[in-house]
Design a protein that fits this description.
49% of the residues lie in helices and 11% in strands. 26% of the residues are buried. It has 208 residues and is mainly alpha-helical. The longest helix has 16 residues, at 95-110. A hairpin with a 2-residue loop joins strand 1 and strand 2. The strands form two sheets. It has a three-stranded antiparallel sheet, with helices on both faces. It has a two-stranded antiparallel ribbon with strand order 1-2. The protein folds into two domains: 1-105, Arc Repressor Mutant, subunit A (Orthogonal Bundle), CATH 1.10.10; 111-185, no CATH class. The chain has ten helices and five strands.
Length: 208
């Protein structure tokens, strides 16, 4: 078997590979799939998925970039895609399956405001979106990324794509915030360099 990562440069025997429930196996940083190369693996994962995948979501699972592979599969009519705000989501080429996947994604996203905004039953969906967007507008870049990652974690599958489209962010930025939270890699740094900000009053007008 050849790896689907590293452009297929590595090989293993099928008897050696101990595949996970996702039909993947890795040796160090080299990844193998029961389905074959990256194109075959991406196609299989999207086709079998409950609600389709974006490139960022599939990258998290396969541990390699998938955007070009997914685009190629669409051009070859092996997958189809639909744009949600600014993010493409990929679905099965079979229309009946794709409709079920799209429906599952819409149902999932409708439930998202239970965790996204306040649990006020009188708050309309558009008002809830406005609250979240307004809150993010007062955060610095790092806080915004971590907050987006937190909300994506609450949503689970499809969270990166949905939060990215809601907040006008890149899905990879949302994924980075999510991974930072999961790993606990939160090195607290000053938002502003030392010495920045307004000059203290007593320094502006020193006593004689």
């Amino acid at each position: 078997m050849s790896s689907y990562s590293h452009r297929g440069k590595f090989y293993t025997l099928r008897s050696i590979a101990s595949f996970t429930e996702h039909d993947l196996w890795s040796f160090r940083s080299v990844w193998f799939s029961r389905f074959g190369n990256l194109l075959q693996t991406a196609e299989a994962f999207v086709t079998r998925s409950e609600a389709g995948y974006s490139a960022a979501e599939l990258k998290d699972i396969l541990h390699v970039k998938t955007k070009h592979a997914l685009s190629h599969l669409v051009r070859c009519s092996r997958l189809q895609r639909k744009k949600y705000e600014s993010v493409y989501v990929y679905f099965s080429v079979e229309n009946a399956v794709a409709r079920k996947q799209e429906k599952a994604r819409r149902v999932h996203l409708k439930k998202s405001f239970a965790s996204l905004a306040v649990t006020n039953p009188d708050l309309a969906a558009e008002e809830a979106k406005a609250v979240v967007v307004l809150f993010c507008s007062v955060l610095n870049e790092r806080q915004r990324r971590l907050y987006a990652g937190l909300e994506s974690l609450k949503l689970g599958h499809g969270g990166d794509t949905y939060i990215a489209s809601l907040l006008g962010m890149d899905p990879h930025t949302v994924a980075r915030g999510r991974q930072e939270l999961i790993s606990g890699d939160l090195s607290f740094k000053r938002v502003r360099a030392a010495g920045g900000g307004r000059v203290l009053q007593e320094k502006k007008h020193p006593q004689s």
